[in-house]
Specification:
single chain; 409 residues; mainly alpha; two-stranded antiparallel ribbon; 2 strands
Length: 409
């Protein structure tokens, strides 16, 4: 009797393990719009940096309207105060949900900055405020965009998206005052003195020429691929998104062409070889496969490019290049959101470096990523196999229990 109970216990444990494996196999294929509870070090760093920036940008911006007679600075101060105050509320809420500990007090370094700004008056205050705030927001923009492009945590993604939108707007407001020193747009970390800053990196931004070339090549492959997908995709949502992307790339091409004519840049007429392979992969697929291919390749390409565009937006001293970068950044951010909204973007398709399998060309002219090779398909097939085994184990266990009951009778 004891032996039989032990045997039954072993089989019950086996069934539990098989069931757990089955669940794990299904959970392994996580879409990009699913929640991940883990907070990565880079995501935590973004949240802490945003909190630290808010701790001094909010008070000095609150005081700016009272310390200036310049209408532009007064409006910028109110806009930045309101924007960073709202972000801070959302940030604290997100940190509470995710268990991220954020600094509560203003650091001594930032307090010194607040005190120094309070001593400045007139044009001296206005120029320092416009330049140092714009400089800081440029660094935040790059960090927020990088987080937005790569995070799998939906709470952090929403926070980063809101941060990018606010920074794009308020950076422009500051620049429009005409008081931002263009020679001080490097990505920096603020020190105690307004005029003393530490440069994090030199020459890390793409040149204006490189920016315009990158944006042009991106449109050269994604616009026709989107136009084709708007006609051939099976999912109505994918067709609608693809049609919108195709139309809005016309706007991007126009902005880039205008900037190139002003700066004197010759633009390419063809996408890169790699980009052609992405377009070919979409063209050679059909049905559900085309839908997945288009959504994942497009989202990965956008995610790979947007950080470079954000860095150019934050650092370029050229007004035409800045306008092109602003247009590119705004559209890429919007397109990422639209593509994620299809529900087809997988967590391993957020940047091209994360999905080597999808860009590998097969020996024959077939799409690089076959349906059976996708993480979702593999997880699903594995789950089915395990489910069959688990079902067989369950049937065996039931028979064993029944046999045991008959033996007792």
């Amino acid at each position: 009797m004891r032996h039989r109970l032990g045997t039954l216990g072993q089989h019950a444990a086996l069934f539990a393990v098989l069931s757990a494996v089955f669940l794990g196999a299904l959970i392994g294929a996580v879409p990009a719009n699913a929640q991940s509870t883990d907070v990565q070090p880079s995501e935590r760093s973004f949240m802490v940096s945003l909190r630290q920036a808010n701790s001094w940008l909010v008070p000095i911006s609150k005081e700016a309207p009272a310390r200036t007679t310049n209408a532009g600075i007064s409006n910028a101060g109110r806009d930045i105060f309101e924007g960073h105050s709202r972000l801070d509320v959302d940030l604290l809420k997100a940190a509470g949900e995710l268990g991220v500990v954020l600094p509560n007090d203003v650091s001594s370094e930032h307090q010194s900055l607040i005190n120094e700004m309070a001593e400045r008056t007139g044009d001296n205050h206005d120029r320092a405020y416009a330049t140092i705030v714009r400089q800081t927001q440029g660094g935040l923009l790059v960090m927020a965009v990088q987080t937005r492009a790569t995070t799998q945590n939906t709470t952090i993604r929403t926070l980063a998206h809101q941060t990018v939108q606010m920074l794009i707007r308020t950076m422009t407001v500051l620049e429009n005052t005409g008081l931002v020193d263009p020679s001080a747009l490097e990505l920096v970390a603020v020190k105690a003195q307004v005029n003393a800053v530490r440069v994090i990196g030199q020459n890390i931004e793409p040149s204006d020429r490189e920016l315009l070339v990158l944006l042009t090549q991106h449109s050269l492959w994604q616009k026709p691929a989107s136009r084709e997908s708007s006609d051939r995709a099976r999912d109505a949502k994918v067709r609608k998104v693809a049609g919108q992307l195709a139309a809005e790339h016309t706007q991007l091409v126009s902005a880039v062409t205008e900037a190139a004519s002003q700066i004197g840049v010759d633009l390419p007429t063809e996408p890169t070889t790699e980009q052609k392979s992405w377009a070919n992969a979409i063209s050679s697929s059909s049905g559900d496969e085309l839908d997945r291919m288009y959504a994942n390749l497009s989202r990965a390409a956008d995610g790979s490019l947007i950080t470079q565009v954000a860095r150019a937006r934050a650092t370029t001293k050229s007004v035409p290049a800045r306008i092109a970068a602003q247009t590119g950044l705004t559209l890429l951010l919007k397109h990422m959101l639209l593509l994620e909204g299809t529900g087809l973007v997988k967590s391993n398709s957020l940047q091209m470096t994360d999905i080597p399998a999808i860009t590998q060309k097969q020996p024959i002219a077939s799409p690089p990523a076959q349906p059976d090779d996708s993480p979702t398909s593999i997880g699903f097939i594995t789950g089915i196999i395990v489910l069959v085994v688990a079902a067989a184990g369950t049937l065996w266990l039931v028979r064993a229990v029944g046999h045991h009951g008959e033996h007792r009778r």
